[in-house]
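Dear support,

I submitted the protein below through the web form. The confirmation email said the job was done, but the results page showed an empty box. After a refresh the structure appeared. I'm attaching both so you can tell me whether what I see now is the final result or a partial one.
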Amino acid sequence: MKRFNFKKASPVWISGEEKEMNVSLLLSAKAGKRARLDLAGHSLYQVFVNGKLAAEGPARAGHGFYRADSLDLSPLCDREENEISVIVAGYNVNSFYLLDEPSFICAELYDGDEITAFTDGPGFTYERYTDRVRKVQRYSFQRPFTEAYSLPAKREPVTVAPTEKKNFIERGVLYPEYDFSAFTRVVSRGKFRVKESEHHYNDRALTAIGEKLKGFKEDELSLVISREVENLDCSLEEYDLPADSVTLSKNGYAIFDLSAEYTGFIGFEIETSGGRLYISFDEILCGGDVNFTRFGACSAVIYDLKPGKYKLTGFEPYSLRYAKFCSTADSVKITNAGLIRFEYPSAELIKAPEFGDEALDRVYKAAVSTFRQNTIDIYMDCPSRERAGWLCDSYFTSRTEYALTGGSRVEKNFLENFIMPKKFEFIPDGMLPMCYPSDHNDHTYIPNWAMWYVVELEEYLRRSGDTELINSAKERVYALLSFFRGFENKDGLLEKLQSWVFIEWSKSNELTQDINYPTNMLYCKFKKAIANIYCDKALSDEADRLAEKIREQSFTGKWFCDNAVYVGSEAKITNLCTESCQYYAFFTGVATKELYPELWNTLVTEFGPDRKNNNKHPDIFFANAFIGNYLRLELLFREGLYSELLDNVRGYFDYMAQKTGTLWENDGDYASCNHGFASHTAVWLLSIFGKKA
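What the results page shows now:
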């Protein structure tokens, strides 16, 4: 970690409110044409120059550390005197996305080499950002607050005071792109009425607020966004109209289409007679409509607008293809509506190869788009419901970063974050969080995912040669090994693991106790990885003995069984077998095609994307996209079965690419349709077509 030093600025916040939930602060200053802004803060900030979005930050870090940005604003400074505005949101709630730490902002504004404004000094003015309604519900269990606005707002000047000192470090990763994509078409338009919905969104993010999940309780909310939006009963009418300028009369709605899914900040201009504007959004349409709570999130924003013209930009990044605008105003004109995209910079990516195949072209483009939307400061599982840095997902996305960019900048940040804290609150000593930076007040962790951290470390070392990070991680890695040793039985197998034992999104997750063999297969690979990284021969020998025990106990003569359960004092296999368990066996090296040629041949020739239509093995439970299907494809690639691999890629992914232009969490569109790990498809395609070239 490289330290970042502010020359004059100190971190500040509204006096006495560093730990208050969902408080927003606005900083303003004047700047010349050579403006640069150095800043750090928590939880999030947006920087505007003359009303145009210049940056969203900061890059995330582990507990106790804060990454700083150094922003060259001169390209946007087209006047002698330019307006610099910084909106800062201090959330102070636990989430999978942002840490529950006190709010602050620390900033220095430069004109060339001269500091013209700095926090806890002259140059900035401070106002409470009352445009944004404070007491609103969480966006999801995994993310902090939704957005509601009342405009124009009467802002209040506030006094700021220095906060505790902070450990500032450099950003470490590139700055994202902020290209604008306009909505292309209006696909539905009509009227709505307000009608009490028969079904209410009663997600835990609304109903389970307390010590384990922080936020405002329902009876404290200024408005319940989900309740209001679900009561808008639209008479759906299909249209196909240009989206550049849309006029709505009272209680009118229009559904806008981006033509593909993107992630960013909803932006638009509006001229209104005054009223409430509801914007709901999603990745797909369900029955021709936007289902804004489809995957356990409140994907909606509300604006209360007095008569006038507004140019509006949302604060939080969202993922969507479709957005529904509903207005209560007598008349509304919406123009220049779209998304300010928030993505990994395209200039850093290698040129796409020539596939000569429309389906592969689509899948590769979707994989790259998925990568760009999920890779900003860390690797994210999805840029929508969670924006969380999950282990295991990161193993796959890290390979994508290297294949597309030739480097591992984001991976370094991602892995480094797990080393920063002295300990992780709420989970057992030695264990790693399942996703990070995050706070897991409910004490949940995934023991399997912690193993993937080490498996990824081994590959990171080969990619980067970064022995400094590897050495820094050693104490944490061996503490993790020590944690697992407490669950080893007399055969060296892990048994009765606690918390959330996760294999993949399929039947596999129901077969995790008492002795789960896919978990132990991964444990074998985990031990091998530590042995290879830190030259630990004794641990390598342990891994070999563990693999032999798994083969001895789990293999039924035809398949690897998923689990054994205790009957009295004896553990007996259940004879329940999943497709993903077979892939785990070969992926981890517990099985090889030489040891199990018949099973290998069966998996290659009789499993794959067509299996659900022609299932020759109904007793073997299906794998899902995450991660079973990906392990399958990796195995085909390792064995050089490129023709079979490409057929599988078409079968597993082309329908996703056609529907959203992104790749999904599952093999159906019932959850996230944009998941970072899925970008790994580009790795196989690049490798195969690189070899052909």
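Response: this is the final, complete result; the empty box was a page-load delay. The CA atoms of residues 249 and 380 lie 40 Å apart.
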